[in-house]
Amino acid sequence: MSTLEIDTLAPSPKPPRRVWKFFSTSLWGLFIFAAMFLGQAAVVAYLAWRGGGLDFATIRAVAGSGMVISLSVIMGLPAVTLAVWIATRCAGARLSDYLGLRWPSWRAFLAGLAGLIAVVGAWDLLSKAVGREVTATFMVDVLKSAEADNSLWLLLIAFCVAAPLTEEFFARGFLYRGWSESFLRPAGAIVLSSVVWTAMHLQYDWFFFGEIASIGLLFGYLRYRTGSTWLTIVLHGLNNLAATIQTMWLAS
């Protein structure tokens, strides 16, 4: 039997029985974001309580630790996954179908990787041209704190695995899916989901906001062209890994 015949006979993923539209997706998005915030804040509150109390000074001191930041990011993943699962189940859909959790082709992966390298490389050249640091101060501070806590391995898991899964499930998975099938259509969903994703990175300054927004637009376009959120998750993880390694190298 030929490859074409096998592909023809292979069952295609069943579409969800219902897709939340613009306002429903936005409301569910607030619910998912709240779940992520509570999951991350619970870690900070617990460790602050163990460290002496829940006063503002203690919470601020604890929240700046590289180990605590890593743990809070990691805890955001189960919180978001559960919230998204609830939202998709209420739509009568499987989580994997609704979020587009299907593997892309190697050609799509290589094209996406090339696009990511081009975007990040352009921003690195621009930062050097205007006399800015290539790495963000926030990343340097977190890295040094994680090294002091002997939790660098935990930081890598948080930034390169947990954060990409959490953010892509939310932005390119859930938000894009609902908004793309509303009056926004795919183009509007790409832009709006990128804006939301960029706003989730308030720890950076305006320059890195621009870089994050452009990467978000690229990821949204790849989500639209391939229908795969796994593609954006993997690329997101590779981008964070490269940024972490770059920060380690420059900081040393």
Give the helix/strand layout.
Elements: H1 3-9, H2 22-51, H3 56-63, H4 66-90, H5 95-99, H6 106-129, H7 137-148, H8 152-180, H9 185-199, H10 206-226, H11 229-251
Describe the overall structure.
This protein is mainly α and 252 residues long. The protein has one domain. Helix content is 79%, strand content 0%. The protein contains eleven helices and no strands. Helix 2 runs antiparallel to helix 8, helix 7 packs across helix 11 and helix 8 runs antiparallel to helix 9. The N terminus is likely disordered.
The major sheet is characterized as: none
Regions with pLDDT < 50 over 5+ consecutive residues?
A: 1-12
Strand content: under 5%
Helix content: over 70%
Shape: globular
Q: H/E element string?
A: HHHHHHHHHHH
Q: Which structural class do you get from the secondary structure elements?
A: mainly alpha
Radius of gyration: 19 Å
Terminal CA distance? 57 Å
Compute the number of structural domains. 1
Tell me how many strands there are. Answer: 0
Q: State the helix count.
A: 11
Report the average pLDDT across residues.
89
Notable features of this structure?
79% helix, single chain, 252 residues, globular
Quick take:
The protein is mainly alpha-helical and 252 residues long.
